[in-house]
Amino acid sequence: MVGASAGSARAAARRSAAVRAGTTAAKGVATRRQGADADVRGSIFARLLRFLREVVAELRKVIWPHRNQMVTYTIVVIVFVVFMVALVAGLDVLFARGVLGIFG
């Protein structure tokens, strides 16, 4: 075998034999996917309604920040965005002057 060691060839042969047999060495016989029977779909409206219910259920699990935390986070984000805009604008002006100085 070119490009592969004999050990890896034996391991690949064992894996392919296990796949053909439907088993793996550590896990045993493969089982059906959990919830495979739930693949039956309803109408688009039923799926949309279920999706919205799940979204609301997930949002109820969220630990929302208190007002003072939210104000702090908002200020930090605004300061960071202003800093990044100033940095990019400054670099833009610097490079523009450099290019104009070189190429006239």
Global geometry:
flat
What Rg, in angstroms, do the CA atoms define? 30 Å
Q: What is the ordering of alpha helices and beta strands?
A: HEEHH
Q: What structural class do you assign from the helix and strand content?
A: mainly alpha
Number of strands: 2
* Average predicted confidence as pLDDT: 83
Proportion of residues in helical segments: 55-70%
Strand content: under 5%
Low-confidence spans: pLDDT under 50, at least 5 residues?
Answer: none
What is the first-to-last residue Cα distance? 62 Å
Biggest sheet strand line-up: 1-2
Number of helices: 3
**Main sheet makeup:** 2 strands, antiparallel
Family: Belongs to the SecE/SEC61-gamma family.
Keywords: Cell membrane, Membrane, Protein transport, Translocation, Transmembrane, Transmembrane helix, Transport
Main location: membrane
Membrane topology: Single-pass membrane protein
Structure, briefly:
Belongs to the SecE/SEC61-gamma family. The protein has 104 residues and is mainly alpha-helical. The protein has helices at residues 6-21, 44-61, 67-103, and strands spanning 23-24, 28-29.
